[in-house]
Write a structure and sequence with these properties.
Length: 378
């Protein structure tokens, strides 16, 4: 009903616009876009396979046009917050099309918004191409699993596939704490409790304080943003839940450093000990351009064994990459090893792999002749 009212309103207030936000988002989804950008003084743009594509058939958006498009997706409460605070995070859904995570904000030009497409259907673990070693997570009863990577690297998609696997294969209670809720899971073998920050709970920390009294088997924390959230996530992992969280780090070693460094120096030894006991997996993810179009993920996988737990406890994080490299027999994998696998499968180019390589010399055998000649002269 709200959508129909908003469609009617925009056509009557801005009769010069022959499209609305819902048709724009539907078109972007059909094109396989990951993100839709609305910017004042710009034409709409879609990010497709990692590349920003200007949508030439649409007009350059005035301030009024951009405002009308963005506010089509808001109820009165969201509009009030947005106009007062000048930015807003929330989610919307177009039935039978997709969900969208939305960030709206003001800039020097005017109104901007980014819509991230969240498919209605969760891609199953088996079809997402995740390493088989990650299935071992199914056997865990408690601890912490961290999925890391830059914005747009597919962290949410990977976590959704893992949570879906639990939902299909294990009985229990799954609590998700997100801002906003992204993937919506239909209960199967598990009870699913989706909680949205500012809608169902005051904050990540408030929800994490309460979660231990909610008999959870799995707790998904949308983002471990600050000291309090990270501390409470570690406590929940210590007290019997399996906690999933995300960070914006690029490797397993940097993830350990990020978790520890957020705490004051006098607390870091204690946190290293807590993390060493609780840590189960770190998955560091990058999303690369695939030959022929589309994207493919390269995943560094850390599985916490005795050696890695000891390195975390002692603060010897510099040794973690060597432990990952030597742990291939139990399913561990460095970023470079993941890139080599993708190159051997012919899924990515050497040029694309070289952007993400830690030690580019390991990729030399895949370099084109002109690059090899250049390397020979160095």
């Amino acid at each position: 009903m709200l959508e129909h009212i908003l469609r009617y309103t925009i056509v009557n207030i801005f009769p010069f616009m022959d499209f609305d936000i819902f048709s724009l988002l539907t078109e972007a989804n059909a094109q396989g876009a990951s993100d839709i950008h609305i910017s004042t003084q710009e034409k709409p743009r879609f990010r497709v396979s990692g590349t920003m594509v200007v949508q030439e058939k649409y007009p350059v958006l005035t301030y009024e046009m951009a405002s009308a498009l963005v506010e089509q997706t808001m109820d009165s409460e969201k509009k009030s917050h947005y106009r007062a605070e000048r930015d807003l995070d929330y989610a919307i859904e177009i039935p039978n099309i997709a969900r969208f995570r939305v960030n709206t904000f003001f800039t020097t030009k005017g109104v901007n918004a980014v819509f991230r497409i969240i498919p209605n259907e969760i891609i199953p673990f088996e079809k997402l191409g995740l390493p088989d070693s990650l299935r071992k997570i199914l056997n865990l009863k408690k601890g912490i699993v961290v999925v890391t990577g830059p914005t747009g690297s597919g962290k949410s998609t990977t976590l959704a596939a893992i949570v879906d696997l639990f939902n299909r294969e294990r009985k229990g209670h799954i609590v998700t704490i997100e801002d906003p809720v992204e993937f919506v899971h239909t209960p199967n073998k598990c009870i699913i409790s989706h909680r949205e920050v500012k809608k169902h709970t005051a904050s990540f920390s408030a929800s994490l304080r309460a979660v231990t009294r909610q008999d959870p088997d799995i707790v998904l924390v949308g983002e471990m943003r600050d000291l309090e959230t990270i501390s409470l996530a570690l406590t929940a992992a210590e007290t019997g839940a399996l906690v999933f969280g995300t960070l914006h780090t690029s490797s397993a070693a940097k993830t350990v450093n990020r978790i520890v460094d957020v705490f004051p120096a006098e607390e870091q030894n204690q946190i290293q000990a807590m993390l060493a006991e609780s840590l189960q997996f770190i998955v560091a993810q990058a999303l690369l351009k695939k030959k022929g179009g589309g994207r493919v993920a390269a995943l560094e996988v850390l599985i916490a064994n005795d050696a890695i737990r000891n390195q975390v406890r002692k603060g010897e994080v510099y040794q973690i990459p060597l432990s990952i490299q030597g742990g291939s027999d139990i399913g561990m994998k460095t970023t470079d090893q993941a890139l080599i696998e993708l190159l051997e499968q012919g899924l990515i180019t050497y040029e694309e792999a070289s952007i993400y390589a830690v030690n580019i010399n390991l990729l030399n055998r895949f370099a084109p002749p002109e690059i090899l000649q250049e390397l020979a002269t160095i």
